[in-house]
Input
Amino acid sequence: MDKIQKSYKQTKNIYDKTLTRGSIWSKLYIRIFWGGVDDIKIAETLLSYIPDDFSGKLLDVPVGTAVFTHKKYKRMKNAHITCLDYSTDMLEQAKNRLPDIKMLQGDVGNMKFDDESFDIVLSMNGFHVFPDKEKAFSETYRVLKKGGVLLSCFYIKGKSKITDWLANNILAKRGWFTPPFDTEESLKARLEKLYDIKTFVVDRSIVYFYAVKKIRTGLRDCADPKKLDQKSNFWRSVFLWQNTLLSLRKK
Ligand SMILES: C[S@@+](CC[C@H](N)C(=O)[O-])C[C@H]1O[C@@H](n2cnc3c(N)ncnc32)[C@H](O)[C@@H]1O
Output
């Protein structure tokens, strides 16, 4: 996790320009290594799923510098927005952009929020960075209400040799990305267990999707092994009691 703090401290001043193609170098970088994928358009598409008059609770993790979201959040006057990021440097810039929005420093894999407390979880360009993917998926799932929406975009491997080379040999080594990375198939399989997938688009090496947390799956318990244990202990006692009663009757 310290590697992440360090890496995003180094890039905090060039991050926005790189992703929004604000310089000739970043235009070249996106063209050569990312096949010219348009991060701004992807972010706009995801944000377009949220109405400006949304009045529920939204969690943005990781918020980063809020480069893609600050204009949208300023329009969402009735929403209860919470933003989380591990890097204090990135968060500082988001705070400057959005001084009235709740900004917290923390780890997506260990969030302090109650179960089922958000209507929307927005996670842009985060899952390829999060060091513990399993925890990140289970925590974002845990805090989302049943029927709540996960909106997300991030890098997936297997779509472009040059992008995969960059991700493994440069970005991961410098701490901006963290393997293992999902493929389109592994991500779909992971999501289908927990969500109804409404939109799933692969644009070069970036995937973006809109997924709704299933209302009745029983998988809630699987996401939390402690609860699964409590539940099986309960059924074990019911079974034992039933057997005792039956044997008493026979006597
Ligand atoms: C590529 S930036 C994306 C930021 C923003 N969502 C965007 O699209 O511009 C990735 C961010 O993930 C944050 N991050 C990495 N690991 C994290 C973790 N375990 N918990 C929370 N944030 C994390 C980093 O600090 C960084 O700000």
Remarks:
- Residues 4, 8, 19, 61-64, 67-68, 84-87, 90, 107-109, 124-126, 129-131 surround S-adenosylmethionine (CB under 6 Å).
- Confidence is low (pLDDT under 50) at residues 218-236.
- The two ends are 63 Å apart (CA to CA).
- The longest strand covers residues 144-155.
